[in-house]
Amino acid sequence: MTDKVVSFEQAVSWIEDNSTVLVCGIENIMLPDRTLKALEDRFLTDSHPSGLTEIHTTIHGMGEGVGLERFAHPGMVKRVIGSGFSFLKTSKMTAMLRENQVEAYVIPMGTLFEILHQTGAGEAYTFTRTGIGTFVDCDMEGGRMNEISSEPVCEKIAIKGKEYLCYPNPKIDVAIIRGTTVDEDGNLTVEQEPVNAGVLSAAMAAKASGGKVIVQASRLARRGTLHPRKVLVPGIMVDYIVIDPEQSVSGGEEANPSLTGEIKIPVSEIPPLKLDSKKVIARRAAMEIGENDHVVNLGVGIPANIPMIQVEELGEITSTFFPEHGSIGGVPAERKIFGVNRNPSAILDSSFVFPYYRGGGLDVTFLGFGEMDRHGNVNVSKFNHIVPGCGGFIDITHKTKKLVFCGTFSAVGAEFEIGNGKLTILQEGKTPKIVEQVEQITLNGPMAYKNGQELLYITERCVFRYGEDGLELLEAAPGIDIDRDILKQLPFTVKADHVKQMPEEIFR
Fold this sequence. Notes:
By secondary structure, the chain is of the alpha/beta class. Helices cover 19% and strands 25% of the residues.
């Protein structure tokens, strides 16, 4: 044992009121939850530390009482900054945001990683063009997610005639990160993690700020025994070590080896998709991958089914799928562990993914939509009483040449009969997803079109394109009455002069 190895209670005992705490984790992957529990227990016992500012690049924890939910106590945090908050309607943190009990700001994931890079380099500001024209633009909402969040977290400035969003870099008092093995000196490896989650950038930002770094790992090694090539975070950046032998395995015991690259499983072991509206959308979307579209990004939800469409119908994966958390190649995993790939060919550090995206490295991306409107704007960040935020959505759509948005025409209670090459609507959904004006602009349709990006919107019953004349209906499903089932369901008119039929085979 060394002075760095402490109990969970000791690790969080020195955190003071009004500190800024940076936490790693991607939903329930690479989540340092036992450390967060110790912090929560301390607050519930003696009401300290209070007034915290919590920062996270990615939503950490997805479920009752874990991750970010451990901060959801009145007085514990005064401000929360992240790329998103929760997809769950039962989230206590989301309830606190709605009730204005805590200031809440969203910054795109890639911008947050860039802020950590710049903070780690001792720079005072981060400049970016990503997010201009969306809700994070300080001329619009400035990333503010409720009324109590009165000040934008950025300002807009001009540099040689171009507008940039300028973020002041924060002072990080403590970074809480996680890995697999740590030695007595604090050298950290992540061999059993399917992603790196930017933990090196987090540690560097904290050290440059004069802050501390807490590392949670599942096992402790003797100093000098770890291979230097396997060390991701060097011990000189680590202040406290906590060991949790029962640390949850990212992705689960069964899936983990195929996510980390330890083994490659036969793709045939992955169960096929059932024929429903989501599969229809994924099938039609998969047709938008051209022969030269080699590098493909997939968003959460329906788009994540596209690789399995290739496996089922072509017998193999024909594209390189590259989600924003760093797995390259293979087959993206199921929703509960979204963001990682089975059988990856490489795993890139999360913080370096977005520079590649911003440089135009993606050929096409497939993303979901919570809402879309007549202007081609898309909202995934705030709707229907949830505040999922934007995650990496704004970074991904910033420069990708072809943007394909996938979602059902309506939500809540929609029922269909699919088969024999056609679609029959048995019951319309109660909640429209195509609206006059989206609640929040996560993608600015007119601006993307002006930038030369191709915009398609695919639902189970039709396909739209945004072009020179605005939104246009391109295709309708066989079995659908265009006027009754599409045009009269819209709160606005669209161009529908040359509507083709969606391919019958996707309904078989």
